[in-house]
Design a protein that fits this description.
Protein name: UDP-glycosyltransferase
Helix content: 40-55%
Shape: globular
CATH architecture of the largest domain: 3-Layer(aba) Sandwich
CATH class of the largest domain: Alpha Beta
Strand order of the largest sheet: 3-2-1-4-5-6-7
Largest sheet: 7 strands, parallel
Mean pLDDT: 96
Strand content: 5-15%
Low-confidence stretches: none
Radius of gyration: 23 Å
Number of domains: 3
Number of strands: 15
CATH topology of the largest domain: Rossmann fold
Length: about 475
């Protein structure tokens, strides 16, 4: 039987994590598929022993990025008009005027937003994006590759990358089926939909309803609920180290119980070091009450700043740093890519910690996969690095409205309140939070979690067959 050739278009670290570092390829090949990674990242997927075609030295049209930025804000304005909800303004980025080129691009973007902030304007922006991308050498290159390789389908691993437009347009013009994966639970309300494909793969029925609501041009039969491979690593028991081995490898005290502090990037949480300090002070107070606790600090993988250094030194007897196993390929933040080993490391941190604390992160779902709770900080620091930043604004984002109940999270509402909440966890009085977090997880991601790749492959095969 002739194998189907499946092109996986990979553009970033998320695509690598979900589809190159998971068992996705192996599952597909067992189903008699020839999996080819069409790779536009700096990482060599071939180094994993996989078949890849590298996309190198190919550029989008000079106007495409400006049109895409305008499209995002126009989309958000349309959402505001449709819902009468100002929360969508929170998803807009500030315009840059740092130099002449940036000023020109920002001015043009603002003009387009002013002129085209309606449904017709969106269609016009899409029309011009596609028009200009078809004029590029990038599009011609992609079309030539596809004419030679003749894949059965192009599966785009992220819906938000402007670099994916030319390959998908080339496939469309050659009548090759296309599909895209909505890679994160918060992406749809943020207006991150850059691509147009024949099919859209989503995490859940909840996400499917969002896609229909925000993009009424997409028909229900184009949307396929599969879940995400993102969390499958947590169900691979052979990846878990014995507690004694893990503690020895990372210089942890075998007699201590550890709380994981999962750092955010500087934009999401400019006062993150202060929250880490609040947690450390809480641990000191609890240890004075005869607890024996410590902190595992895992920084945000793209945060290489020194902003935590003072806190880490001050509380070095309490805090153990376990850095993410990500690799920078250039000096740009978006070329800092995960490794396969980091997924295994993070799963082990979740397994061997009592809980995770942070600011509104999806790590909640990683930890609840190990039956561990999550604490969210929910108070502002008295002295803030950015006085315009407000933690309460973060929890008003649309994706938090999917929360099963307030009990899905352990809320940390003040520095002194942290003690009681951690003590509740170490005394095993947190089953309600675990149960509600699992219900939230079931709402935003199709279960069984560990079968996401199988469901994606079944859907791909159905598309090809039809």
């Amino acid at each position: 039987m002739m194998k189907n050739k499946i092109f996986l278009l990979v553009l970033d670290g998320v695509g690598l994590r979900n589809f190159a570092y998971s068992n996705f390829k192996q599952i597909g090949e067992k189903k008699n598929n020839n999996v080819v990674f069409w790779n536009k990242t700096h990482f060599s997927i071939e180094s994993l022993g996989f078949n890849e075609i590298k996309i190198e030295n190919q550029k989008i049209h000079p106007l495409t990025d400006t049109l895409k930025k305008a499209k995002k804000d126009v989309n958000l304005n349309v959402f505001i008009n449709r819902t009468k909800d100002k929360v969508y303004n929170s998803y807009k980025f500030k315009f840059s005027y740092k130099n002449f080129n940036a000023s020109v691009k920002s001015s043009l973007t603002r003009l387009l937003i002013f002129l085209l902030s309606n449904e017709k304007g969106l269609k016009l922006l899409d029309k011009y994006i596609n028009y200009f991308e078809r004029k590029t050498k990038y599009y011609t290159y992609c079309k030539n590759v596809l004419q030679v390789e003749k894949p059965s389908i192009i599966f785009c691993t992220s819906q938000r990358h402007v670099q994916s437009i030319a390959p998908l347009l080339a496939a469309k013009d050659l009548e090759i089926p296309t599909a895209s994966f909505i890679f994160s639970w918060d992406n749809i309300p943020k207006a991150t939909m850059v691509v147009e494909t024949d099919f859209y793969f989503v995490w859940s029925e909840h996400m499917k309803a969002e896609l229909i609501f925000y993009h009424p041009n997409i028909r229900e039969n184009q949307i396929i609920v599969t879940g995400t491979p993102q969390f499958e690593i947590h169900f691979e028991k052979n990846s878990l180290m014995p507690r004694s081995d893990f503690f020895e490898k990372y210089s942890l005290d075998i007699d201590k119980r550890y709380i994981c502090f999962s750092g955010d990037d500087v934009t999401t949480s400019p006062d993150d070091p202060k929250y880490l300090q609040d947690l450390a002070e809480s641990i000191i107070r609890l240890n004075n009450k005869n607890h024996n606790l410590g902190i595992i600090f895992r920084r945000c993988p793209v945060d290489f700043s020194t902003r935590y250094d003072e806190i880490l030194e001050k509380y070095k007897d309490i805090i153990v740093t376990i850095d993410p196993l990500w690799k920078p390929f250039t000096s740009h933040w978006n070329t800092i890519l995960p490794t396969k080993e980091d997924g295994i490391l993070f799963s082990n941190i979740a397994e061997h910690s009592e809980m995770v604390v942070n600011l509104g992160s999806t790590t909640l779902f990683d930890f609840v996969a190990h039956n561990k709770p999550c604490g969210y900080f929910r108070y502002n620091q008295k002295i803030q690095k950015n006085p315009n930043w407000d933690i309460f604004r973060c929890y008003k984002f649309v994706h938090f409205r999917s929360m099963h109940s307030e009990n899905s999270v352990i809320w940390l509402d003040s520095p002194t309140a942290i003690d009681e909440k951690i003590e509740m966890v170490v005394n095993n009085n947190h089953q309600k939070q675990i149960d509600d977090a699992k219900k939230w997880f079931q709402k935003i991601n199709q279960h069984p979690v560990e079968q996401a790749s199988e469901r994606i492959w079944s859907a791909i095969e159905n598309i090809i067959t039809k």
